[in-house]
């Protein structure tokens, strides 16, 4: 744990990718093999289930420190992170040294076993660990306990660090650490072996990601060299048919087969050894529907007949990664598309559709088409070089996403709360309101989009102008105006405003505007009428 805590400290404080890469590479070159497997799992989202809730951790810490509850809560509000608060408040120790020090995998394996144990057993183990750890080790341990383990390092950096340590190509590493594997039972050498990859019929390929196109598309060259498609607003996924089994993976490496029974019949219709890349989106009669309808299906263990009828899910296929058990990624997009069309047309299934190629002869013509994206429930266009292979991760040059401009609304900040991680001492999480007559109505929260300097300015304003205090939340004078950008809007009966926004963020601080110049609730409802959907319970 000591070595892992040191690694997390470097990754959490460094702002340079090369420093993070070096730290990870050194770790993978020197750490215990079982620890390496768990680190790969943790950094790729395979965290163990929470074995104890936050209130119990808080209670046990209060018992150990004998602090008044109000003082613990005040400390928590100041720090802004439960794991760090507990690590700071517990009596300081020197930790275990030498032969007494426990490796990371020992703790994680024990946490998995604790899931079905009684509260007494859990408390005894966790308290014992706390009293044997240093502050930094406790912080990491607590993050694992609370399920809040997040490190600012990309999957690409993890893959490149592993590639340096084990001398394998990064693309090979990315594929072998994907899929359905258990860090409790998988050995490091086995995980990275070709044999292990071939034994997992469900294993997806690493996704190829596009770069945002911010320049004029004319800089890309001749239009004839490019294929244009709609950029669908759904869940990126892979549909896999191997060994007469069907699997559906999301880009976030979540196995989602059971969530979409519409695809079940494809197990008998698709050729064996086929992997399709595409978008999971609701649709009827081949026409995409708003993303809000898909959200009604996400997270549900059991899908009802009513939900199947109201939000039928399609798979809009736009690439072929494997055919007849052969890896087709090195082939050109043109070759892959031709074979993809044969596969989809051969299946003849209403839930499996081809993503439409958008025809164009000039960039000006395509720009005009792009402006119609919202009419197709799309976010813009994808531009793909016809000669391109299917690569790994986000690469510059061959795949671009040309998104339409977001919606924007001017609003005033009315509440503020401290952030997390490196922003835990600053007020960086804000609630915004629009005008409704002579009242202010809250309608969204946002915590990204400002520079560090601007966050510091807003933090100073909150500390000077806070009116009321509700736990960690501060009511502030409604004086600061911000432009809020968002990708979509739906009706919501869970919000006072009656609407909910998709991907809200701060686009700029409107220091040129006064609070009485912000938008109104009627403006939001007009957007809802023109571009929104009836989401009902959407958040």
From TrEMBL:
<dbReference type="InterPro" id="IPR012308">
    <property type="entry name" value="DNA_ligase_ATP-dep_N"/>
</dbReference>
<dbReference type="GO" id="GO:0006281">
    <property type="term" value="P:DNA repair"/>
</dbReference>
<keyword id="KW-0233">DNA recombination</keyword>
<dbReference type="InterPro" id="IPR026333">
    <property type="entry name" value="ATP_dep_DNA_lig_pp_1105_fam"/>
</dbReference>
<keyword id="KW-0132">Cell division</keyword>
<dbReference type="GO" id="GO:0046872">
    <property type="term" value="F:metal ion binding"/>
</dbReference>
<dbReference type="GO" id="GO:0005524">
    <property type="term" value="F:ATP binding"/>
</dbReference>
<dbReference type="GO" id="GO:0006310">
    <property type="term" value="P:DNA recombination"/>
</dbReference>
<dbReference type="GO" id="GO:0006260">
    <property type="term" value="P:DNA replication"/>
</dbReference>
<dbReference type="Pfam" id="PF01068">
    <property type="entry name" value="DNA_ligase_A_M"/>
</dbReference>
<feature type="domain" description="ATP-dependent DNA ligase family profile">
    <location>
        <begin position="306"/>
        <end position="436"/>
    </location>
</feature>
<dbReference type="InterPro" id="IPR012309">
    <property type="entry name" value="DNA_ligase_ATP-dep_C"/>
</dbReference>
<keyword id="KW-0436">Ligase</keyword>
<dbReference type="InterPro" id="IPR036599">
    <property type="entry name" value="DNA_ligase_N_sf"/>
</dbReference>
<dbReference type="InterPro" id="IPR016059">
    <property type="entry name" value="DNA_ligase_ATP-dep_CS"/>
</dbReference>
<keyword id="KW-0131">Cell cycle</keyword>
<dbReference type="Pfam" id="PF04675">
    <property type="entry name" value="DNA_ligase_A_N"/>
</dbReference>
<dbReference type="GO" id="GO:0051301">
    <property type="term" value="P:cell division"/>
</dbReference>
<keyword id="KW-0227">DNA damage</keyword>
<keyword id="KW-0234">DNA repair</keyword>
<dbReference type="Pfam" id="PF04679">
    <property type="entry name" value="DNA_ligase_A_C"/>
</dbReference>
<dbReference type="GO" id="GO:0003677">
    <property type="term" value="F:DNA binding"/>
</dbReference>
<dbReference type="InterPro" id="IPR012340">
    <property type="entry name" value="NA-bd_OB-fold"/>
</dbReference>
<keyword id="KW-0479">Metal-binding</keyword>
<dbReference type="InterPro" id="IPR050191">
    <property type="entry name" value="ATP-dep_DNA_ligase"/>
</dbReference>
<keyword id="KW-0235">DNA replication</keyword>
<dbReference type="InterPro" id="IPR012310">
    <property type="entry name" value="DNA_ligase_ATP-dep_cent"/>
</dbReference>
<dbReference type="GO" id="GO:0003910">
    <property type="term" value="F:DNA ligase (ATP) activity"/>
</dbReference>
<protein>
    <recommendedName>
        <fullName>DNA ligase (ATP)</fullName>
        <ecNumber>6.5.1.1</ecNumber>
    </recommendedName>
</protein>
<keyword id="KW-0067">ATP-binding</keyword>
<keyword id="KW-0460">Magnesium</keyword>
<keyword id="KW-0547">Nucleotide-binding</keyword>
